[in-house]
Amino acid sequence: FPDKYDDHRISSNSVNLSAYKLTQEEKDALGIKDSELGNALSGALSSATAGILENNSQVKYELDKYIKDKKIARELVRKWYSIKDDGALDYSVFNERIKLSMSEEDKQRVQQAAIAQTEIDKMSDKLINNTFVVFTKLNFVSNAIPAEAIRQVAYAQADKLSGMMQTMARKAADKIYEKASEGYSVWTTAWLYKLEWNEQIYTDLRKIMTSKDKLDINAFNAMNFNLEFIGQEKATSLVTFSLKKGEGDRTEDEIIELSTVRNVDKVFTKLQREYEVFKPLYQLTGVDPFTAKLGMKEGLEGGEKFEILEIRGGEYNKIGTIEVDKSKVWDNRYGAPKQEIEQTYFKGKNKDAREWFYVRLVK
Predict the structure, then answer these.
(1) Cα separation of 4 and 236, whole Å?
(2) Please, is 23 exposed, middle or buried when counting C-beta atoms within 10 Å of its C-beta (0-12, 13-18, 19+)?
(3) What is the DSSP string of 2-70?
(4) DSSP structure class, residue 209
(5) CB atoms near residue 309 (< 10 Å)
(6) Which of 19, 78, 301, 340 is deepest in the core (most CB within 10 A)?
(7) Which residues contact 305 (CB under 8 A, 6 or more apart)?
(8) What pLDDT digit, counting tens, does each position of 74-93 carry?
(9) Strand 358-361 relative to strand 209-211: parallel, antiparallel, unpaired?
(10) β partners of residue 88
């Protein structure tokens, strides 16, 4: 599970889409034609690689069917309110998460009973409005498949030659194949959804509450909650077994695991950078100099700009900007060796910043 996000998983943690394949009628309604799937592939790409992308082209629509059938959005809301089968509910999840999003000043006001319920409700709405679901699909393909396709193209060119030149060209093609065919390629595609939440939905929910601690469960089950599709991203990684320096003790399984986890991290980073709504916040660990617990796993290379955010009443207010120090970027990627530093350093000054403030990447 990716850090920097609260774990709000429900019972469905994996998806078998075999029961949600599109019918011909659904394909026609969506304008999908089998012959046009994967048209972007060309040249020497293998049929196996083409199949990977072709299979994924319909996954978003299959996920939509799954989400609707399993009522995933409703289950997410149900977890927020800890709703039982008899309609009993409590606010423990909200209370726990609100504490994490409060400033020191807000916490003191709670202790002094000086914070209004309307403010707490506002914080709760903001939290539930930041509920996301990410579906990830991983495909593994042997590098021997595209490597063989490349070799056959090279053979065809070599056969146009004669004598020793032809022999040398075919041997060169074999050497290229031997080098390129090792290991696997990992393809990860991720689909990002967000729980739809607004004042009208909250009002409708309040209407079916028979008391502060209970609601009409039948009316709740009849409510229509939705997940909004935000977008999708892809990431690829090459998995080879030519052990690099420092990896001599890794088994092939460990190398595959390392590449797979890093590939998933990579696709999450792409989602975070591409879609503003999904950007995580990172709490500062120091202000002189500025430091925070993020690094290469989050795609940092150095030079990126971050805004400093102060929390007041559940709102984030920008008070300045800092820049990642290129010489002090923490390698926190999965399987990375122990580092001299265990946080990333930033360049910049701000006399108003405190360690409980947050930073967020500026796109």
Answers:
(1) 23
(2) exposed
(3) -TTS-----S--S--GGGGPPPHHHHHHHT--GGGTTTT--TT--HHHHHHHHHHTTHHHHHHHHHHHH
(4) E
(5) 21
(6) 78
(7) 321, 322, 323, 324, 361, 362
(8) 999 999 999 999 999 998 99
(9) unpaired
(10) 214
Q: Are 175 and 154 in contact (CB under 8 A)?
A: no
How far is Cα 134 from Cα 122, in angstroms, rounded to an integer?
A: 25
Low-confidence ranges of the chain (pLDDT < 50): 35-54, 243, 245
Q: Which phi and psi angles does 74 have, rounded to 5°? A: -65, -40
What b/e readout covers 211-237, taking b as 16+ CB neighbours within 10 angstroms? Answer: eeebbebeebeebebbbeebebbebeb
- Beta-carbon count within 10 A of 116 CB: 11
* Contacts with 167 (C-beta within 8 Å, 6 or more apart), sequence order: none
Distance of CA 270 to the CA centre of its chain: 8
Q: What is the pTM of this model?
A: 0.79
Q: Which amino acid is at 76?
A: L
- What is the token pair recorded at 48? 């196996």
Quick: pLDDT tens for 167-223.
Answer: 998 899 888 878 777 777 888 999 999 999 999 999 999 999 999 899 999 999 999
Rounded to 5 degrees, φ, ψ at 323 are -125, 140
Q: Go through 172-206 and write b for each residue having 16 or more CB atoms within 10 A of its CB, e for each that does not.
A: ebeeebeebbbbbbbbbbbbbbbbebeeebeeebe
CA pair distance 194, 130, nearest whole angstrom: 7
The Cβ-side half-sphere exposure at 222, using a 13 Å CA radius, reads: 7
